[in-house]
Amino acid sequence: xxxxxxxxxFSTRTSRVLAEKIAENYGQELGHIIIQDFSxxxxxxxxxxxxRGGRVFLIGSxxxxxxxxxxxxxxxxxxxxASAKNITVVLPYYGLARQDRKxxxxxxIGAKLVANLLTAAGATRIMTMDLHADQIQGxxxxxxxxxxxxxxxxxxIQSLNLDDxxxxxxxxGGAKRAKNYASHLGAEVxxxxxxRKKANVVEEMLLIGDVTxxxxxxxxxxxxxxxxLCKAADIxxxxxxxxxxxxxxxxxxxxxxxDNIQNSQISEVIVTDSxxxxxxxxxxxxxxxxxxxxxxxxxxVHEHHSISDKFII
Length: 313
Prior knowledge:
Elements: E1 7-11, H1 16-26, E2 33-37, E3 43-47, E4 55-59, H2 67-81, E5 86-91, H3 110-121, E6 125-129, E7 144-147, H4 150-160, E8 165-169, H5 175-185, E9 188-198, E10 201-208, E11 215-223, H6 227-238, E12 243-251, H7 257-262, E13 268-272, E14 285-288, H8 291-302
Parallel strand pairs: 1-4, 4-5, 5-6, 6-7, 8-9, 8-11, 11-12, 12-13, 13-14
Antiparallel strand pairs: 2-3, 9-10
Helix pairs in contact: 1-8
Domain Ribose-phosphate pyrophosphokinase N-terminal: 9-122
GO molecular function: ATP binding; kinase activity; magnesium ion binding; ribose phosphate diphosphokinase activity
Protein name: ribose-phosphate diphosphokinase
């Protein structure tokens, strides 16, 4: 007889579609949860089954609005007060991760605040993917499983069978990520250097490297307004690239992102379903599911198996 504690999977409302895919791959149905809404906007999530002594997986990406984070925190508190032994919070997308440091006077460090809130609520383990900054792992005093979407994207890139492949980073901050992809794929790497005057607005961009007659793939952790990616694609095509594709883990896609992508020189944008996208707004967007990756790692964690083979890049 197995000595493993039982496991339970629950989801926030906005991550329900992804959570159902994760549950299917995990081999277990999502647990029942009822959320009571009050007329003033307050809500109360209630777990509809006993989780006493078990491992609870709470699945929810914390993209805006802030109610998504609050809902997850309330679910953690509910599981803790229901005597769950372990509470693993599965964050396919970790919101506020761009606020990972104090880069101006009197600014908050939002990513650290979120870590404090998750821990204070009762989380005993965090599972997430492609953090905006690796050092966010250090904001926690509990185990963090930081997965890489490269395990999803590398297979897709190889299936394209592109000649003269070059990996590009749309900014200096992503240079390490681009280099790791390039090393794994046996490709060259180039970097786009950008300067911003304010958030979401790129003032100037320069290219470091040669892309003449190359098929270029831009690598980033997220797409917000898509302004940086589209501007990078323009420069790459101006410098002689044969084609430009973009890969980004988290499709934030705010503002005019869909129009920017559709009207850009990018031939294809590949993302995961860590954040639900709006269907039918751009024919260039292809979604690869991260559900099998999370389900596999969740099962390994639950069964106390190594997950080191999930860290390709």
